[in-house]
């Protein structure tokens, strides 16, 4: 018998009797585990570090870490508000007041605005003071909008040597204090990486606390309607809650932290739990309907389904576990979490289902319910179509896959970070304001190593670099390109009567540059500290070129822009024997690379999942042919849906990038149950048609019920504020429906053809 190793044939029998006989003890044990897990799960934290999104060996991380060490770039909050009278004494006074109020907040180390320049209040006299006009132009897109009616205060937060969780708590309080003050001003809002992380993870926490339970409740209500019994409302819901709580509790115990995609953990546990429970319910009710005593029916059900359920859980763990091979931190961690969650489902089913199945069962009618005969008729009709017209089913399926499969080559990536949130969210509104008023919300940087003291020739080369990359600058003419390039070179050019290029070949020029740099540091210390810094790790000195670009631009244009800057920096500042190479980094760059890597990893993890599941199924069914057949109907919907995404031009985000491996692991569960049922009936009756009818009435019925319940449950994910979660929920519904169609139509055709070809019936 498939999935029944000879040495373990007695295990299902003994375990099933034990679970039924001692069901109350196991139920109480489940309650105890649940209570302990709830308490432990309260300590489960979110990882809000950008570093956690990448593999520790990722080449993109060292430059980003250097940026943080040298300039504190990861802890910058941009406070923005509308100020039509900015260049009037009253308006400038308000900016000055805001700057001072923000500087007094605990853990705000520095504040930079038009009010902190050496010119002070005289900077508003741009019509009569050329230096003031030069400085204002320099600060456009940084501390003032291009319309000169939007004011900004750049707040650099202090970073202390503390545990990450403590540091995040301090940062959160500081951000809240900044937001409270800024919102007192017209159109006041705040933005920046720390703000994005705080607000984004606040959304995810709400989602994580609500969506999983909501999905479980919705799915259970569907089962209540389908099975017309209260016990089948509470039994799967109890499995979902126990599995989810115990998973979260274990994650907290081992120190694992949740990430940006962990919201979907609840959904994955819900899927596995309900699918597993429904197969038990259908088989148990079938046996009751045939006149078996409740305890005997349940014991036989567990014994019959033991190995198929174990095999299904293992394939889930293989599919989920394949994500561990990803180099993207959140995907890697999600693979660990979901694989662990699938394992906890198996334990939870054993602990709680026997008690729920038998409590009060003697007083319950086992007669046929309304709708059952209609379903029986439709299932028999499907089998009739399969036996009469197998070739058209295969031809149509193949045609659809070939056509949609071509769309895989049209898939594109979503790199606009704002598209991860709903348009009405505070994060998107903040980004929109910065995009429209300050030229671009995409913040990134060039780091250039220099020797002390900084000479005129070095600054001239930096100026040449800026001029070359400005060829991609379009200001506000289009939606792509660089909207701001700022370095110490621009500052010195604005205040110096002599161009830097004219000073680079003389000792006098070096002396003038050295003096100008020192004056700049003394008169504008905050801005100077953001443009010239020392890496405390090796005491190296770095110049920073600050770049701005529009976040809302197509992925190809964003990638082209990043490649242009990286190529130019590599050409002009290659590594030498004494200095490292120039580096391009920043949140803008990291996010673009992150999503691209997720797409690359999707096919790699999918291949691992497919190979792993194929090997396991071939071993379990003791047949390479059956192992391949069981995969086919589950790969088809994945190709179909991703191909449709390609043809329709819908971009792939962090949610859809994991759908292939995850969906394969989930949908193959049905194939295992159906194939096991088909082969069991074929060996007993010898008739392929009878085996198909029986498999459709048992495994097929369970597939329909669980799919309907899960589709309704997964609709809860579409209410999330995090768009990747919405995408994941929507596409999961489609893949589940596709898997159902494949397992009810394509799989039976393939099994019946193989049975005839290889004479399984005989």
Apparent shape: elongated
Mean pLDDT comes to: 84
> What is the terminal-to-terminal distance?
15 Å
Overall strand count: 9
Strand content: 5-15%
Radius of gyration: 31 Å
Assign the CATH architecture of the domain at 375-410 and 592-762.
Answer: Up-down Bundle
- Separate helix tally: 24
By CATH reckoning, the class of the domain at 375-410 and 592-762 would read: Mainly Alpha
What is the structure about, briefly put?
The protein is of the alpha+beta class and 762 residues long.
Please provide a written account of the structure.
The longest helix is centred in the last third of the chain and has 36 residues, at 723-758. The protein is α+β, with helices and mostly antiparallel strands and 762 residues long. Among the domains are: 1-42 and 229-257 and 271-319 and 329-361, no CATH class; 375-410 and 592-762, Up-down Bundle (Multidrug efflux transporter AcrB transmembrane fold); 442-549 and 554-585, Alpha-Beta Plaits (2-Layer Sandwich). The radius of gyration is 31 Å and the shape is elongated. The protein is built from 24 helices and nine strands. Strands 5, 6, 7, 8 and 9 form a five-stranded antiparallel sheet that branches. Helix 9 (265-289) runs antiparallel to helix 10 (294-321). A hairpin with a 4-residue loop joins strand 7 (532-535) and strand 8 (540-549). The protein has helices at 10-21, 23-41, 61-71, 89-103, 130-139, 164-182, 193-227, 231-253, 265-289, 294-321, 329-358, 372-388, 390-405, 426-437, 456-469, 488-495, 507-523, 525-531, 555-572, 587-621, 624-648, 659-685, 688-714, 723-758, and strands spanning 76-82, 108-112, 150-157, 189-191, 442-450, 482-486, 532-535, 540-549, 583-585.
């Amino acid at each position: 018998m498939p999935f029944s190793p000879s040495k373990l044939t007695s295990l299902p029998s003994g375990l099933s009797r034990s679970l039924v006989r001692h069901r109350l003890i196991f139920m109480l044990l489940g309650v105890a585990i649940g209570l302990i897990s709830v308490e432990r799960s309260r300590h489960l934290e979110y990882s809000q570090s950008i570093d956690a999104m990448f593999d520790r060996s990722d080449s993109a991380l060292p430059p980003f870490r250097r940026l943080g060490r040298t300039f504190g770039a990861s802890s910058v909050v941009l406070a923005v508000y509308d100020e039509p009278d900015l260049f009037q004494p009253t308006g400038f006074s308000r900016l000055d007041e805001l700057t001072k109020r923000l500087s007094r907040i605990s853990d705000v180390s520095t504040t930079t605005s038009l009010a902190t320049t050496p010119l002070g209040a005289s900077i508003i006299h741009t019509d009569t003071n050329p230096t003031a006009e030069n400085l204002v132009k320099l600060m456009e897109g940084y501390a003032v909008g291009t319309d000169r009616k939007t004011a900004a205060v750049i707040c650099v937060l202090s970073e202390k040597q503390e545990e990450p969780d403590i540091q995040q708590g301090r940062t959160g309080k500081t951000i809240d204090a900044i937001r409270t003050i800024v919102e007192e001003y017209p159109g006041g809002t705040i933005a920046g990486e720390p703000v994005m992380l705080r607000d984004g993870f606040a959304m995810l926490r709400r989602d994580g606390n609500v969506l999983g339970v909501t999905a479980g409740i919705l799915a259970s209500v569907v089962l209540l309607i389908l099975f017309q019994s209260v016990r089948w409302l509470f039994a799967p819901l109890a499995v979902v809650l126990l599995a989810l709580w115990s998973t979260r509790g274990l994650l907290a115990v081992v120190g694992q932290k949740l990430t940006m995609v962990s919201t979907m953990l609840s959904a994955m546990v819900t899927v596995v739990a309900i699918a597993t429970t429904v197969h038990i319910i259908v088989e148990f009710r079938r046996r009751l309907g045939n006149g078996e005593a409740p305890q005997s029916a349940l014991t036989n059900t567990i014994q019959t389904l033991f190995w198929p359920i174990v095999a299904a859980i293992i394939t889930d763990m293989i599919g989920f576990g394949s994500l561990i091979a990803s180099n993207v931190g959140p995907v890697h961690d999600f693979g660990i979490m979901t694989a662990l969650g699938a394992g906890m489902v198996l334990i939870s089913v054993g602990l709680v289902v026997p008690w729920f199945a038998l409590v009060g069962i003697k007083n319950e009618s086992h007669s046929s319910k309304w709708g059952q005969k209609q379903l029986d008729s439709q299932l028999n009709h499907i089998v009739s179509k399969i036996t009469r017209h197998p070739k058209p089913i295969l031809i149509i399926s193949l045609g659809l896959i070939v056509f949609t499969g071509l769309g895989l080559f049209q898939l594109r990536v979503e790199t606009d970070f704002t598209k991860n949130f709903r348009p009405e969210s505070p994060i998107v509104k903040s980004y929109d304001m910065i995009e429209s008023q300050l030229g671009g919300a995409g913040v990134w940087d060039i780091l250039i190593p220099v020797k002390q003291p900084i000479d005129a020739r070095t600054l001239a080369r930096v100026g040449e670099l800026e001029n070359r990359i400005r060829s991609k600058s379009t200001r506000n003419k289009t939606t792509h390109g660089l909207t701001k390039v700022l370095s110490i070179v621009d500052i010195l050019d604005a205040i110096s009567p002599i161009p830097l290029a004219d000073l680079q070949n003389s000792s006098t020029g070096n002396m003038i540059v050295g003096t100008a740099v020192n004056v700049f540091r003394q008169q504008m210390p905050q801005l100077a500290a953001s443009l010239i810094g020392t890496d405390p790790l090796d005491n190296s000195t770095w110049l920073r070129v600050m770049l701005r670009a529009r976040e809302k631009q197509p992925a190809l244009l964003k990638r082209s822009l990043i490649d242009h800057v990286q190529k130019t920096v590599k050409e002009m500042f290659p590594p030498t024997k004494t200095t490292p190479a120039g580096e391009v980094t920043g949140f803008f760059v990291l996010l673009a690379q992150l999503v691209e890597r997720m797409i690359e990893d999707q096919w790699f993890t999918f291949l691992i999942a497919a190979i792993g599941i194929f090997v396991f199924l071939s071993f379990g069914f003791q047949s390479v042919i059956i192992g391949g057949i069981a995969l086919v109907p589950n790969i088809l919907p994945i190709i179909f849906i991703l191909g449709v995404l390609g043809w329709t031009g819908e971009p792939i985000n962090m949610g859809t990038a994991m759908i292939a491996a995850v969906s394969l692991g989930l949908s193959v569960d049905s194939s295992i149950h159906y194939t096991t049922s088909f082969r069991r009936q074929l060996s007993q009756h010898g008739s392929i048609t009878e085996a198909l009818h029986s498999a459709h009435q048992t495994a097929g019925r369970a597939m329909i019920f669980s799919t309907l319940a899960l589709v309704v449950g997964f609709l809860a994910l579409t209410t999330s504020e995090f768009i990747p979660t919405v995408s994941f929920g929507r596409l999961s519904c489609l893949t589940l429906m596709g898997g159902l169609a494949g397992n009810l139509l394509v799989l039976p055709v393939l099994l019946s053809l193989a049975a005839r070809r290889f004479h399984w019936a005989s």
